[in-house]
Amino acid sequence: MSVLNKQIVLANRPNGMPSLDTFRFVEQEINEPAEDEVLLRTLYVSVDPYMRGRMHDAESYIAPFQLNEVIEGGSIGEVVTSKSEKYQPGDIVIGMFGWQTYYTAKEEEVRKIDPSIAPISTHLGVLGMTGLTAYFGLLDIGKPTEGETVVISGAAGAVGSVVGQIAKIKGTRVVGIAGSDEKITFLKEQLHFDEVINYKTATNMKKEIEKACPNGVDVYFDNVGGEISDAVLSKLNRFARVPVCGAISSYNLEKIDVGPRVQTTLIKKSALMQGFTVGNYAKRFPEGAIQLGQWLQEGKLTYRETIREGFENIPNAFLDLFKGNNIGKLLVKVSDRQNDQ
Ligand code: NAP
After folding, report:
1. What CATH code would you report for 129-280+290-294?
2. Ligand 1 centroid, distance to 317 Cα (angstroms)
3. What is the 3-state secondary structure (H, E, C) of the chain?
4. Per-residue pLDDT tens digits for 27-57
5. Which atom of ligand 1 approaches the CA of 250 most closely?
6. pLDDT digits over 239-254, tens only?
7. Which CATH number describes the domain made up of 5-125+304-340?
8. Pocket test for ligand 1, best of 60, 223, 305, 322 (most atoms within 8 A of CB)
9. Is 212 near ligand 1, meaning CB less than 6 Å away?
10. Which residue, 50, 51, 79, 117, has fewest beta-carbon neighbours within 10 Å?
C-alpha cells in the first residue's frame, strides 16, 4: 500500500469559536516532484491566532482560506526527494505548506534552515515569525528606552514572552499580563519580569495596572485588545507608544466589540498607537533573525515551546490557543527527521 498525503482542509467558515467540525481530514496521492521541485515530509507545523482571521471570507492583509483547501501556515519539512540543484534529501526547509504530511514544493517556495544553530522548531518561534513580530513591533514602534515601563498583554505566549525579554535587554521595567498562575510563575521566575498580573483572577484591572506601574505606562505591547487593553490604555504616560500587534480577545466574537473610545486618551497623552503586521518588515527579517540568534547564543534570550505530538492533533492544538493552553510557541510535531545527521 502506498503512502498517502494526509491533509486538513477548512470544512466551513466558523461563526464565533471554531470547533473540530471546522476542519476535515482528507487524503491525497503524493505528487512526485517535477524539474526544480522537491518532495517534503512535514516535521513541524505552526498553529497561530492569525489563522482564525483567514477563516472569514473578508478582505484583510492576507487572503482568506478557501473552503475544502488545505489550511496554509508556517511549516518545517525535510526534503525526501529533490529535482532541484538547491536541495538535497535530508535538507531541512521552512515554508508556508501548512497542515499536510507531505508537500511538493517549487524550489523558491521554501528556504533552507541551518539545524546546527538551534533546534529546528525555533524557526517557527523565537527565531521565526513570532520572534520577529516581537522584535520589530517592540523596537520599531514601541522604541523602549532604559528605565521606562513596558506592559505586555498575552505576555506568556509566543510573541509576548519574547517582547518581555527584549524589553529587559533594553533596560526597562517589564510588566506582564497573562491568564494562569503557571504562566505568572513562568514570567516571574524564568523570564524575570518585574511585575505580573493574572487577568483571570484580578478583580479590578485598572487598580492592578496602577499598582504594577507606579510610574505609569510608557510602552504597551498589545496582543489581546478588549478590556485588558482598556485598562492599560487608561494608565498611559505622555508620549507613550502602543504597538498594536493582536486582538485575540475579539477574534471569535460574533458581534463587534465596542469599548471606550481611545481618541481623547491619545490626544491628552500625545500617545502613539500603531497597528502593524510582521510582513511590513520582510526586508529587515535577516537583521532581526541575526540579532535574536545572537541574544539566544549569548544566553540573554531564552524560549519556551508547547509541542503537541501527531498530525491528528493539529485542530485541537489550534483551538488551544483560544483557551490559553500554551506557554510560549505552540507547535505540532508531525514526524521525526529520517536523515538525522
Ligand atoms: P500566543 O500568545 O502564543 O497564544 C495565544 C494566547 O492568547 C493564549 O495562550 C492566551 O493566553 C491568550 N488569549 C486567548 N484568548 C484570550 C482572550 N480572550 N483574552 C486575552 N488573552 C487571550 O499567540 P501568539 O502567536 O504569540 O500571538 C499573540 C498575539 O499576537 C495574537 O493576537 C496574534 O494574532 C498576534 N500576532 C500578530 C502578528 C502581527 O504580525 N501583527 C504576528 C504574530 C502574532 P492567556 O492564558 O494569557 O489568556
Report:
1. 3.40.50.720
2. 14
3. CCCCEEEEEECCCCCCCCCHHHEEEEEECCCCCCCCEEEEEEEEEECCCHHHHCCCCCCCCCCCCCECCECCCCEEEEEEEECCCCCCCCCEEEECCCCECEEEEEHHHEEECCCCCCCHHHHHCCCCHHHHHHHHHHHHHHCCCCCCEEEEECCCEHHHHHHHHHHHHCCCEEEEEECCHHHHHHHHHHCCCCEEEECCCCCCHHHHHHHHCCCCEEEEEECCCHHHHHHHHCCEEEEEEEEECCCHHHCCCCCCCCCCCCHHHHHHHCCEEEECCHHHHHHHHHHHHHHHHHHHHCCCCCCCEEEEECHHHHHHHHHHHHHCCCCEEEEEECCCCCCCC
4. 999 999 999 999 999 999 999 999 999 999 9
5. 18
6. 999 999 999 999 999 9
7. 3.90.180.10
8. 223
9. no
10. 117
Using CA atoms in the order 229, 234, 238, 241, what is the torsion angle rounded to 10 degrees?
A: 0
Residues 6+ apart with CB under 8 A from 208: 197, 202, 231
Pairing assessment for the beta strands 173-178 and 102-106 based on DSSP bridges: unpaired
User: Is the pTM higher than 0.90?
Assistant: yes
- CATH 3.90.180.10 boundaries in the chain: 5-125+304-340
326 close to ligand 1 (CB < 6 Angstrom):
yes
* CA–CA gap between residue 145 and residue 136 (Å, rounded): 15
Take atom 3 of ligand 1 and give the residue whose Cα is closest.
157
72, 4, 73, 68: which is closest to 41 by C-alpha?
Answer: 4
